[in-house]
Automatic annotation (TrEMBL):
Similarity field: Belongs to the LacAB/RpiB family.
BP-aspect Gene Ontology terms: D-allose catabolic process; pentose-phosphate shunt, non-oxidative branch
GO MF annotation list: ribose-5-phosphate isomerase activity
Any Pfam family matching the protein: LacAB_rpiB
Protein name, per record: Ribose 5-phosphate isomerase B
Keywords, in A-Z order: Isomerase
Binding residue positions for D-ribulose 5-phosphate: 8-9, 66-70, 99, 109, 132, 136
InterPro entries per UniProt: RpiB, RpiB_LacA_LacB, RpiB_LacA_LacB_sf
Location of the active site: 65, 98
Superkingdom in the source lineage: Bacteria
Family annotation (NCBIfam families): PRK05571.1, rpiB, rpiB_lacA_lacB
Amino acid sequence: MLIAIGSDHAGLEMKTEIIKVLKELNCEYIDFGTNTSQSVDYPDFGEKVSDAVSIGKVDRGILICGTGIGMSIVANKFPNIRAALCNELFSAKMSRLHNDANILILGGRIIGKDLAKEIVRTWITTPFEGGRHTNRLKKITLIEDKTMKGGPKKSKTLWGSNNES
């Protein structure tokens, strides 16, 4: 399995620990940065990892920032991405079993390194369950096709146009 990994400055220490887990699990990885503890902008690194997963250059991705929220927002802007912010083991397991999450997001200032390593182990080793969940993912893909692909456009929500003045 080939994993893209990236972080901002707030996730750098945790990223170093997560890379050790990837090696332990015999996962290949591409480190998209950052490699500095100086302040950087998380969207720059979230974009690189998310794009690599979105186009199929890698199998899955892991992103780490201070809370995980910013990276989650960035990752879920990309087509074909199902990014899950997981701060405990149950969510990590279920994100794979039911949602086939392809990017794991961690909050470097929210959880400790030991828990983060266990979350990564769980997330990497848990397969997608398929079955009834496959149809749900197809529905998500249909929503994505209507709302994301083809660039920005005026959208019509279930409640009518959200672009009315």
